[in-house]
Amino acid sequence: MHDVVIVGAGPVGLFLAGELGLAGCSVLVLEREPEAGSPGKAYPLGMRGLSAGSVEAFYRRGMLHPLLTASGVDDDPGANLPAPRSVGHFAGITLDPAGVDLAALPFRLPSPALEAVMTSLETVETVLSERAAKLGAEVRRGVTVSAVTQDDEMVVARAGEHEYAARWLVGCDGGRSAVRGLAGFDFVGTEPQFTGYAVHATIADPEKLRPGFTLTPTGMYLRTFMEGHIGMMDFDGGAFDRSRPLTRDRLQAVLRRLSGTDVTLSDVHLASSFTDRAMQTTTYRRGRVLLAGDAAHIHSPLGGQGLNLGIGDAMNLGWKLAAAVHGQAPDGLVDTYTRERHPIGARVLDWSRAQVAVMRPESHARAVRELIGDLMSTRDGTTYVFERLSGLSIRYDLGSDRPLVGRNAPDLRLTDGTRLGDLLGDGRGVALDFSAERSLHDSAMGWARRIRYVAGPADNDLGSGAVLVRPDGIIAWAGDRDPDREAFERAAGRWFGSPAV
After folding, report:
1. Domains in the chain, please, with CATH?
2. What residues are paired with 229 via a beta bridge?
3. What's the CA gap between 140 and 265, in Å, rounded?
4. Which of 41, 202, 261, 447 has the smallest set of CB atoms within 10 Å of its CB?
5. Which portions of the chain are predicted below pLDDT 50?
């Protein structure tokens, strides 16, 4: 019996497998596709933007350099830059990166993970697969799960004549998740307003299409910087999605209607459809079954937040589930996964819905869109959108009124050059003690196997005498200049269980 069975070998499942493997768990990943990779995951249809929050997760686990190398990026993104090089868009309204006020971002410090990285799903999965395998996770392909049963001790996934037993099972099997239905999760939300298309084609007369996002009286189309790569949003109530073949004639007819031109698609190389259906499970856990990524929440790909939301799920869940496997989890730790991540998912779904609302081809939506565009052209507006898309505005409610607590930790740097991002590589928590007296040393030693203790002055301690950082990079506790040992011990016990005897 494995500690954890993960269903789905996409980026979320593979990231989670690596997190669990890092903590010494036995992990089996079941994937229904017989082979790794697919045409839709490679350039150009598979291109995705990893947000600053996701890039930071790769950085903290030592995967940023391999990711950048595999993505063809030569330098570290965001390192000491005055502004990010890209911001993204809201409903096709693009923003000027120079308009971001980095000084206004809460508790940000220079970091190799300040901005997004453009890469492909294929590249992300390759980097994550190599890491998961190195850490002992096994991936079995061509396995379709058809039943899930559980009791108080274990959960069993059935596929054909085979049964796979584990202490925990996590569904990371995408928007049409089998695990979600088999385990009885409620999935609620809003129905689609459009059918979207992602197309890679040879265009006979590309000059007839305006570059970038173009809102028209019948919908919207996007001509990207990648040759022959087109996006379309057709407000048909989602009627065409996966209902009929994506033929050249069909795609050309939609593009002509949306663009108001007689543009010609000479050949279609790849095409896929999607909708803005926005749904979320009411909980991310039922007994010993959990969900992460698109299995727990789906929405339109506008703004490219789906992959990033899923990586955030995996980063949040991995260390908590590992603690439960090893009998080190304090009461209720695994349940904090739903409590912390469900509101984040709901917020992203509403962000997606808001974009669709101002994209609709009708007068009221256009009026609101113009107003929002004006607001977003301001420095505050640009900075706000960057915060939302980057994931840097996330703050979990951990019951503290201290401004740092619950936030994604900045890349704190000690005067000897040690950076927080490097200290998180082994998946343990980190206690940074900036006090001259090393006030927390004796207390921290009680959790030495679960918390790395590091002492020394910092280049910028952000007004704190010490901080306790969870394995996912979230600040769990922050102390005054003279840190309170008892307060630290309470926080350590809350997140890491009882100290070693």
Report:
1. 2-90+110-188+279-357 (3.50.50.60), 195-275 (3.30.70.2450), 420-496 (3.40.30.120)
2. 200
3. 39
4. 202
5. 44, 77-82
